[in-house]
Amino acid sequence: MSRRAARIDDNQPDVVEGLRAAGCRVQITSALGQGFPDLLVGAPWGELFLVEVKDPAQPPSKQRLTLDEAEWHRRWSRYPVLVATSAGQALQLMSLRRR
């Protein structure tokens, strides 16, 4: 596992802003590194979600999960991570998983 947190995707601030505007609580966790998802999101209806942000402006090879991210997803597979490129996509995926 890597020791340092990777730099954030260029669209992450927009995703965070959009989620907050939709009434979500957002904790930015990208600085944790080691494959941990970028965001912890509290939905307005009371559920928590882990969100991995990917930048659609990047080539497909740069949008894939890193080795650390893939390993984290595998080890924590009971707690799925939503992978989104926008706040709208994250909200849609959160809504689909709503209990």
How would you characterize this protein structure?
With 99 residues, this protein is an alpha+beta fold. The protein contains 4 helices and 4 strands, in the order αβββααβα. It has helices at 12-21, 60-63, 67-75, 87-96, and strands spanning 25-28, 39-42, 48-53, 81-84. Strands 1-2-3-4 form a 4-stranded mixed sheet, covered by helices on one side. Helix 1 crosses helix 4. The chain is globular, with a radius of gyration of 13 Å. The model has no long low-confidence stretch (mean pLDDT 92).
CATH fold field value: Trna Endonuclease, Chain: A, domain 1
Shape, please? Answer: globular
How would you classify the quaternary structure?
single chain
Uncertain runs = none
Number of alpha- plus pi-helical segments = 4
Helix content: 25-40%
Please list the strands of the largest sheet in the order they lie side by side. 1-2-3-4
Radius of gyration: 13 Å
Total number of distinct structural domains: 1
Number of strands: 4
What's the level 1 CATH class? Answer: Alpha Beta
CATH architecture: 3-Layer(aba) Sandwich
- How many angstroms does the end-to-end distance come to? 33 Å
The helix-and-strand class reads: alpha+beta
Beta-strand percentage range = 15-25%
> Roughly what is the average pLDDT, rounded to an integer?
92
> H/E order of the elements?
HEEEHHEH
Main pleated-sheet profile = 4 strands, mixed
How would you summarize this macromolecular structure in one to three sentences?
By secondary structure, this protein is an alpha+beta fold.
